[in-house]
What we know:
This protein is mainly beta. It contains three helices and 29 strands. The chain has helices at about 1-25, 30-45, 50-60, and strands at about 70-75, 80-85, 85-90, 95, 100-110, 115, 125-130, 135-140, 140-145, 150-155, 160, 165, 170-175, 180, 185-190, 205-210, 215-220, 245, 250-255, 260, 265, 270-285, 290-295, 300, 305, 310-315, 320-325, 330, 345-350.
Amino acid sequence: MGSHDSHDKLKKAIAVINQKKRDIIPPTSEYLSFQAVFYKKNIMSLRSSCRTIFSLLFLVTINPGEAKAQVIPDGTLPTVVEQIQNMRKITGGERVGNNLFHSFEQFSVPEGIEAIFENDLDIENIFTRITGKEASIIDGIIKTAGAANLFLLNSNGIVFGANASVDIGGSFFATTANNIQFSDGTSFGIPTGHPNVTLTMTAPVGISFNGDNGSITVNGTGNLITNDFPISPIEFSGTPSGLSVNDAQTLALVGNEINFNGGVVTTEGGNIYLGSAESGSVGISQTENGFIFTTEGVTKFQDINLNQQSFVNSSGGTVGSISLTGENIRTLAKVFYGMMVNYFNLIFADKNNGN
Length: 355
């Protein structure tokens, strides 16, 4: 009888868990950052016999590796996705000059999955938009061919897991803006009711935010530094892994709040830009030394939070740069900014403090 009663109690506990999940938070990935708070409160209110169950369900809910591989075209452009084992091969799209445009309903790449853009080698820029309502959860690999720059736009939010990486020859630009603006006055982004879009061969000159955009989160293992820097030489327990681009390229993350939880971004002698804007526009220009970003058009900034031994590094034999622009820039717990480099530029633009 006791065993039967325990089984009934367990079933009831699981039913309560499922109901609370439905009541508290809609099952969409853009609420990932809030689920931990609510579930921790639920755990505290349960008897000890049920806490393990709640903890397990909580871990399954927020682990990016548990997400399904969802690389689904939205039909507005001739984008084709072919599934071959752990690969999602992306072909088609719309080519205009040396620009290639893709459009997706969903774009999430869990651990162990590769999303491969099979573009022509003379493509210079790949512009990818997500028009659905789900944030992009990236914990696998994104690849392109040749030296193309990759622009990933999802206004709902973008979450990079500890296993996320990009294997591209050019620069990588991820943003939660509403659209990308081009020099001829056209834009590419979230449709505003009219299904047709004018595509262009011109260069990107900016991105715009309407105030209702998601954030960008970068999770990771941290910098793996074992001694108290700035003591030299700096000692590591391993090689920090995370988002990186090739030498002298640009890695840019621009969203309505930037959150690093042990996140790692690196480029050897290249440029790293972290920008947090709620409304207005961020200017983009391309030079011989990579992309440059300007914020004169931003009407309201948001915060940048670098926590849990995050690692931002542009060390290399050439001059690299690290630029951060936000309302408040908060760094905690041994955040490391590429200070091993012989020549680098480190720029903070904390708009709240005027620094």
